[in-house]
Amino acid sequence: MKALALALAACVALAAPGAAQPPTAEPPPAAFRQDVAWSPDGLHLAWSEFSIVRPDTAPGWNIWIGTPAGTNILRAVPRARWVDWAPDGRRLVYSSNWDGDWDVYTSKLDGTDVKRITHGPAKDRQPAWSPRGDRIAFVSDRAGHQQVYLMNPDGGSVRRVSADTSEASNPAWSPDGSRLVWFARDSTGDRIHLADADGSNASVVPIPDAGAIHPCFLRNGRLLFTGVTPAGRKLLTTIEPDGSDPQLVGGIEAFFARPSRDGRRIAFLSGSWPRSRIGVVRSDGIAARVVVGDPRE
Asked: Model-level pTM greater than 0.90?
């Protein structure tokens, strides 16, 4: 994607939304990476990171972009988190509290041309851009507790998808954009929820162990998530949408993972606060390697 390559070549660090400054060097290992997303062409990763080590970055959360080899790392957006890519690779969607509330924004890859697409006192976070480009899923507490909503990329036509009293998090789209998956938490534990994009045909996926977090779809229709065992281990797991045939992915311990669009690789996060690292592994669980962060942490 020529446009994506050109945009990333110009990716710069910012002091404020929309204001370009010289590129920022690679972030230090001593930082917490919270989420990661593949560019549509699979040539780059974007992630949000919290670090109090670097004096030249905005305090708190920042969004970074780099290659899956851990090279050419640049800070794209200051004071923002929970990032995803537009399906054409030209824009990012993310959450920030620039205006005092957590709202959803989009911008070019270098942080310019910022557009605020949610408004109001609610916490609007964790956006996910649909593969078709026509909708953005996000979570909001505007109804009193955190639920999944959909909106157009300009922020219009907001509608609620989830319909229960648990706290929903991290919606993710099926490859064809027809379904959503998210995890929900209440006093009884964590659950994986599935629904059509309009909220119909909702179901809860039976899981084999103590819990499940950060689910997403694989290209083959299975679900990828972090399974939490009764002993508290967090292991990358795949499962059929009906809860059958659970399989571990190479015995990898991780708390967040997302597959590349072609399905060949998985980017994952491991570690715990205040230090975590980004790894990449083949979809069969072979050849895992740390690409951002210190492997010893």
From this structure: no
